[in-house]
Design goal:
Elements: H1 3-9, E1 11-17, H2 21-34, E2 39-41, E3 50-55, H3 62-76, E4 84-88, H4 89-102, E5 108-110, H5 118-128, E6 132-134, H6 139-146, E7 157-161, E8 163-164, H7 175-178, E9 183-184, H8 187-199, E10 204-208, E11 216-217, E12 220-221, H9 222-230, E13 237-241, H10 250-258, E14 265-267, H11 275-281, H12 287-300, E15 305-312, H13 319-332, E16 336-341, H14 358-383, E17 387-395, E18 402-407, E19 412-416, E20 425-433, E21 438-442
Parallel strand pairs: 1-2, 1-3, 3-4, 4-5, 5-6, 7-10, 10-13, 14-15, 15-16, 19-21
Antiparallel strand pairs: 8-9, 11-12, 17-18, 17-20, 18-19, 20-21
Helix pairs in contact: 9-10, 10-12, 13-14
The structure holds S-adenosylmethionine (SAM), iron/sulfur cluster and FE3-S4 cluster.
């Protein structure tokens, strides 16, 4: 086709993404898929022919937030041509029919397992203008289609989904209902996609899954994937998230001793420090088992550190249960923690349990977060004047000669450099820190000095 006609046919697609890294990965893959029908990504949200809101359903008011966002899109496009508006993600899966019924401005809802249908949906809407709801669980078809489409992600640090869904059914969680049953992608297809990412410039890959360490494909486990990625010369760093404590199998623990590219930081959500609460959440492990895993990992990799998720004021949580959670925080000294008050989710077993009064729940959350902040502050204080290894991801926008990267523990670090250091790992001496950022100076030597 003539290039001029081709350019005229080019359309713009914008995606606003909420929720976890898996949604971020999905959004990027939707952008890859849509290129096939001449829709190209735009960063301007008021300038799109197709506007997608990729939603998260993990905590309360998720659906209301989506309706607010739809309202914002309407305002934004009041005097412009209406974009095709598609709601994707976990709210689309859980509340898709409600959204379509309530707001005719929405053209389609597509659940997380059906993104392979997106081009057909867009084309149908262009020609017929009818509403579409696609919320079947078609995980196999999704990844079968995705393997045929090149992953165009060109970030230094890239995500790669290896596993979807969850069979654990923690009593508070919507994920088994929005993402469906556990499914692991084909081992070789994952490696092919990893090679694509590395060819595009990725130097760090984070393997993703709702239960990433439950990965199993023809006897291949997460540990096998890490060993295979380790052999990719240009790849410098490997991470994975999110893991369930119950699936920290011995082969995976062993990798920490053998791999030089697997980062010494593990996100291991614990939710509560009380065995009674863990049992009532259906978490399937005790605090002793959790701490045993942490201790084995420390033996195998002495410099390893941990981050975690906590649910505060779960139904039935007494002052004593809450204290146990605070004690666990003090004991493990998680360098980052994500803590939220329990949010009852309709349709989940805990959704109908008696909730703890808001005032008490908020008081506990504040107490817990103060402990977490103190631990984080002390950790950062200890970093001052130490040497850390940073992988630089980009030059900072509107800042002359400043580069942004992350150390092995994912701390954001900024340095001054006249040379372009994007994509390189460098030793940095830490000079100061603020709440969100750490500032350092490049060391002269590239030989890593810290233990
Ligand atoms: N698969 C991971 C695991 O096993 O812990 C967690 C995935 S979930 C998307 C992320 C976090 O959301 C959970 O670790 C939990 O702390 C939080 N979360 C999930 N449901 C919640 C609820 N109903 N109320 C508050 N927080 C919740
Ligand atoms: Fe949700 Fe539990 Fe599954 Fe994690 S393991 S996704 S918290 S049900
Ligand atoms: Fe949210 Fe769905 Fe991820 S509920 S956290 S977007 S799996």
């Amino acid at each position: 086709m003539d290039q001029k006609i081709k350019n005229n046919l080019k359309k713009k697609i914008f995606i606003k993404t909420f929720g976890c890294q898996m949604n971020e990965y999905d959004s990027n893959r939707i952008l890859d898929i849509a290129k096939k029908i001449n829709y190209f990504p735009t960063k301007k949200k008021s300038d799109a022919d197709c506007y997608i809101i990729n939603t998260c359903h993990i905590r309360e008011k998720a659906t209301e937030k989506v309706f607010h966002d739809i309202g914002r899109v309407k305002k934004e496009y009041k005097n412009k041509k209406k974009p095709i508006l598609i709601i994707t993600g976990c709210v689309a899966q859980a509340e898709g029919d409600l959204i379509l019924k309530k707001d005719r401005y929405v053209d389609a809802v597509i659940g997380p397992q059906s993104y392979q249908s997106i081009n057909k949906v867009i084309k149908d809407i262009e020609s017929k203008k009818t509403q579409h709801e696609i919320t079947n669980f078609e995980t196999i078809q999704k990844f079968d289609q995705l393997k045929l489409i090149k992953n165009d992600n060109s970030k230094i640090s890239a995500f790669l989904t290896i596993q979807e869904g969850c069979d654990k059914f923690c009593k508070f969680c919507v994920v088994p209902y929005t993402r469906g049953a556990e499914y692991s992608r084909n081992f070789n297809e994952i490696l092919n996609e990893a090679d694509e990412l590395i060819d595009n410039g990725a130097r760090e890959i984070t393997l993703l899954g709702q239960n990433v360490n439950a990965y199993k494909n023809n006897n291949k486990r997460l540990s096998d994937l890490i060993y295979a990625l380790e052999k990719r010369k240009k790849l410098l760093r490997i991470r994975y998230t999110t893991s369930h404590p119950k699936d920290m199998t011995s082969d995976l623990l062993e990798v920490y001793q053998n791999s030089t590219k697997l980062m010494p930081l593990l996100h291991l959500p614990v939710q509560s420090g009380s065995d009674k609460i863990l049992k009532s959440m259906n978490r399937k492990h005790t605090i002793k088992e959790y701490l045993d895993t942490i201790n084995i990992l420390k033996e195998k990799k002495p410099k390893i550190k941990f981050t975690s998720d906590f649910i505060i004021a779960y139904p039935g949580e007494t002052d004593q249960d809450f204290e146990k959670t605070c004690e666990l925080m003090e004991k493990v000294k998680f360098i980052t923690s994500y803590s939220f008050i329990f949010s009852p989710r309709p349709g989940t077993p805990a959704g109908s349990m008696k909730i703890i009064k808001t005032k008490l729940a908020q008081k506990r959350l504040i107490t817990f977060q103060k402990i977490a902040e103190k631990i984080k502050f002390n950790y950062k204080q200890n970093l001052l004047n130490s040497v850390v290894k940073v992988l630089f991801e980009n030059k900072m926008e509107n800042e002359k000669n400043k580069y942004f990267g992350r150390d092995e523990y994912q701390n954001p670090v900024i340095v001054y450099s006249k040379k372009n250091i994007t994509g390189q790992e460098k030793n940095v001496i830490i000079k100061k820190f603020t709440q969100h950022t750490i500032y350092g100076e490049l060391m002269d030597t590239d030989k890593f000095l810290a233990a």
